[in-house]
Amino acid sequence: MTEYGRGPGSEPWHPEDPLFGDGGWEGQQAQPGQQAAYGGQPQHYPEQQQPQHYGDWGNGQQAAYGQAQQQYQQQGHGQQYPQQGQAQQYQQQYDQQMYAGQGQQPYDNNGWATGTHHQAQYPDPADPYGQQAGAYGGQQPDYYGTPEAYPPPEPPSRRQAEPEPPQTDWDPGPDQGEHAFFAGGGDDDDDSDDESGDGRGRGDRRGRGGGKPKKRRSGFACLVVVLIFGGGVAGVGYFGHKFFQDRFGDAPDFAGDGTSATVSVEIPKGAPGSEIGQRLKAAGVVKSVDAFVAAQADNPDGDKIQAGAYLLKKQMSAASAVEMMLDPKSQNNVLVRPGDRNVAVYKAIDEKLELSAGTTAKAAEQKYKTLGLPSWANDNSEIKDPLEGFLYPGTYPAAKGMKPEAVLKEMVTQAANKYDALGLEAKAKALKLDNPLQVVTVASLVQAEGKTTDDFRKMAEVVYNRLDLANPETYGAVQFDSTYNYVKKQSNIDVTESEVKGNYDPYNTYTHKGLPPGPIGNPGDDAMKSTLNPTDDGWYYFVATDGVSKTEFAKTHDDFLKLKDKFNDSRGG
Predict the structure, then answer these.
(1) What pLDDT is recorded for position 489?
(2) Cβ proximity of 476 and 469 under 8 Å
(3) Rounded to two decimals, what is the model's pTM?
(4) How confident is the model at residue 308 (pLDDT cuts 50, 70, 90)?
(5) For 6, phi and psi rounded to 5 degrees?
(6) 235 in helix, strand or coil?
(7) Cβ 345 vs Cβ 337: under 8 Å
(8) What mean pLDDT do residues 395-408 have?
(9) DSSP letter string, 78-143
């Protein structure tokens, strides 16, 4: 807002301002480089002289104004003043407004008054301030004649009879410090005067003592504050109580061991207690997730719940549900162990799904192409079971009501993902094998014959060395008892030489050189990794010398015969 006696951004006018002279109302000689006020002549305030025209505006001379303008701009003020002709017009308009309500006549077009008017009374020269209006809020004469710098004075009807108080930028309110919200200021104040076109803002009205009386609303405001505060306290109390109940109160739970109705629930691998609780609640087994999580934490064996499918009762207490899930009888899972053949897996699925014997084997034979086998699987027409070696070891859900092909597909998918991660296609070439299927086949032999991880690596080397047709020990004959046992669907360690040599099945490595047409079981992680990383020590032979778990290796046929004698001794023969 632009106040009287100052331009936008300027400081209050002071008697020492260059436009007033050098420190008082009495004219003094201008300092070098400065122009004396009022046309450059000493001011003696003679009585009944020609009216003062603020820098010779009345006679068309603008020397004093020009100097004042230059000084004013040099002092850093950003106010731009109009040209001479425009300045004269603004001065005439201003004077007409200034004296219109006081019985004085305005100027004519030449700047001279069209009639007489009273001479302005000058203050006592001895008083440096005299009757000068305060810089803030006083009615300082317009020494520059620009309406942008000084808005026109109020109409006479808005003037107050009493002296005007000094204007300030802060309105302390009726009690000299009362907050505007309780004093009636704020949104209820009438701001229409700011847009009335008189160039004044609310700060000007406050400074001049004018404007509408302030409206008081302290009582209503206090009531609003009390209501808001009271409502907030009530809301906090309600939600705090609910939070306490949810977090620290007893979780909803069923009572007892459940109803006669049963339901199968599948728990994925690595599921935390909260996820298990969510699945049980969705199936209607427990009443709340929190109850199950609490019961699992209270049970010493609660963290031993395994992935798989469980046959549980509906509406069980959380503690009963935990106990039942820890009971192997409730687990509807099929466990594929490393080295298991497919015939054993098919039988286990039939039992878990409560299907007639042979149902899963028939589904595997008819639907194996739809179960997600890799493109390189089943590339040998002599393969007995296309899924052999692709039912990857692990635990899989198998609950009543599920389709056998759905259970098989989970296993095949796991195997395909594992083999792809191992990069079997590239590894097959590095190991001088024909295709990735042969890698799985070697791993199945290693799994069937070895007992430990160290055994697996040595066993893999034995296979690779024997596959070399140029080796002087076996000339390409693998000769593993496990291949004959696969043909016979047995696991017999006491196989006679006459038995194996009298069987000509393609899987029998005693009567056929090289690898069997396909895997003879489902190898696990250790066997697969050992197959890809065999030893390089020159092993060609091995014998389970104790007939159970101890396997010893030999590099020559003579050493092999010694190990064979050791085995026979352990058998009492």
Answers:
(1) 93
(2) yes
(3) 0.53
(4) confident
(5) -155, 150
(6) helix
(7) no
(8) 90
(9) -PPPPPHHHHHHHHHHHHHHHHHTTT---B-TTS-BSS--PPPPPPPTTSSSTTPPPTTTS----S
